[in-house]
């Protein structure tokens, strides 16, 4: 891990207290002076690589625990919360950074209070009539649940890897093995249903122990559904334990269990060690990984966003799936990249360009308002449409990573990664984006006051007093 200047005083102080250690005792175990540790805990000295490695051994955490990723995520969440019109205040980026850095517990409390306020407001609005938010709220909570775990669940991933080894699953031919395994071990009979519009993709009848799979499924899709059902039958207790999160409502917890079963399916068909090795060898070429493991483009993208096991980590990707209207139907992240839960996303993001070039992989170097840059790839995927009357759905999926990882990807070849002029300035969504020079803006920027002048027509919409930011 490349270590720069890491200031992690709040995290270190909290970890020390959780382990019941005094500064004197921890300093002794780290083989540093108490005064040096005191300076680190008061943000006067950075953590060095040597101290980080000793902390990893003494406190049992990975060095990445002290990275800025969690801090930046929390900063984005806090910026979203404080940009809500209901607060009546606007905090600058520097104030938010200081609050998150020096008082992370208070920042998390403010974010939690904002979520509760939004939930309460939506429930009140629902009393006047049905609200679409009532239907999507559990899904949002589940996305936050996966986000909070960096999209990696070690016990489930290891269980899937062990099961794949026990079954000796052959990439691209796993469906037959899984069908036999379900029959021999769990007494489940698999029946293929007629390919008719509206037929369930997968349905399990527990009374008759029959698993019905749609006849429209490809071999890889069939294997994925079989693996998902295996997770439900073989690892119900583990899945339930992982989903037993106090922040999840009963409905959200049920959805989380479904999401974890799908996670297991991907890990079973693409076992961690083998998949990680192949990804590094092939420079994260999604098409080649798809061929090697016999799964689809989207499935490979999703799996790539989960490679966060201990000291065998892959590129920390964010994975998203959107429709033409900008709705995010999947959102998982192993990095600090985080679009706002409220207010939509940025129209300048390459994931939306993908709809204009179906089937092609597009790339983009994107720069956030804080100057941090990311490398993105995006492509459309289509589902359904097996018959004239069968419904078809098209999405765009995107994988992104911090620009410092881009050289590891085959897609970065020929891209001017070091040229700042090649970066597209994007934001967290118009609602909270601070950019004042964006011609694509759909609503006023966060902070500032609208400059309303009948004698002036500006080049950008929603001009704000104070000039461009």
UniProtKB/TrEMBL annotation:
Origin superkingdom: Bacteria
Region (Disordered): 449-469
Coiled coil: none
Protein name: DNA-binding protein
Entries under InterPro entries matching the protein: Cro/C1-type_HTH, HTH_RamB, IrrE_HExxH, Lambda_DNA-bd_dom_sf, ScfR_C, TransReg_Diox_bact_type
Entry-linked SUPFAM superfamilies: lambda repressor-like DNA-binding domains
PROSITE patterns: HTH_CROC1
Keywords of this entry: DNA-binding, Transcription, Transcription regulation
Family statement: Belongs to the short-chain fatty acyl-CoA assimilation regulator (ScfR) family.
SMART domains membership: HTH_XRE
């Amino acid at each position: 891990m490349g270590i720069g200047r890491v200031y992690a005083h709040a995290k270190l102080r909290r970890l020390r207290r959780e382990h019941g250690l005094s500064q004197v005792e921890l300093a002794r175990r780290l083989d540093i002076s108490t005064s040096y540790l005191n300076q680190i805990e008061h943000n006067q000295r950075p953590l060095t690589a040597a101290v980080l490695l000793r902390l990893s051994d003494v406190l049992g955490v990975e060095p990445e625990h002290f990275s800025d990723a969690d801090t930046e995520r929390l900063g984005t969440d806090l910026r979203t919360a404080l940009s809500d019109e209901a607060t009546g205040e606007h905090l600058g980026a520097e104030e938010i950074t200081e609050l998150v850095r020096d008082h992370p517990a208070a920042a998390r409390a403010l974010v939690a209070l904002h979520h509760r306020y939004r939930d309460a407001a939506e429930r009140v609005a629902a009393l006047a009539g049905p609200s679409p938010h009532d239907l999507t709220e559990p899904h949002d909570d589940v996305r936050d649940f996966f986000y909070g775990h960096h999209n990696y669940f070690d016990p489930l991933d290891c269980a899937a890897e062990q099961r794949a080894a026990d079954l000796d699953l052959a990439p691209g031919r796993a469906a037959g093995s899984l069908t036999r395994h379900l029959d021999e071990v769990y007494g489940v009979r698999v029946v293929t249903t007629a390919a008719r519009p509206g037929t369930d993709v997968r349905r399990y009848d527990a009374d008759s122990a029959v698993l019905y799979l749609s006849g429209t499924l490809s071999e890889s899709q069939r294997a994925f559904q079989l693996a998902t059902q295996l997770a439900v039958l073989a690892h119900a207790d583990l899945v339930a334990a992982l989903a037993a999160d106090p922040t999840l409502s009963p409905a959200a917890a049920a959805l989380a269990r479904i999401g974890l079963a799908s996670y297991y399916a991907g890990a079973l068909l693409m076992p961690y060690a083998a998949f990680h090795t192949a990804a590094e060898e092939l420079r994260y070429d999604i098409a080649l990984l798809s061929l090697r493991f016999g799964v689809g483009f989207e499935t490979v993208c999703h799996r790539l966003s989960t490679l966060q096991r201990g000291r065998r980590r892959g590129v920390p990707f964010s994975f998203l799936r959107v429709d033409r209207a900008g709705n995010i139907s999947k959102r998982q992240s192993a990095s600090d990249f985080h679009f706002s839960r409220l207010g939509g996303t940025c129209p300048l993001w390459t994931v939306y360009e993908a709809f204009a070039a179906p089937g092609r992989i597009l790339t983009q170097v994107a720069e956030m308002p804080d100057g941090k840059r990311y490398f993105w790839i995006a492509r459309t995927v289509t589902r359904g449409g097996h018959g004239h009357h069968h419904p078809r759905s098209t999405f765009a999926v995107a994988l992104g990573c911090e620009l410092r990882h881009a050289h590891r990807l085959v897609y970065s070849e020929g891209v001017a990664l070091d040229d700042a002029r090649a970066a597209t300035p994007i934001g967290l969504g118009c609602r909270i984006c601070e950019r004042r020079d964006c011609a694509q803006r759909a609503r006023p920027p966060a902070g500032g006051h609208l400059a309303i002048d009948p004698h002036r027509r500006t080049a950008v919409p929603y001009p704000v007093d104070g000039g461009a930011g």
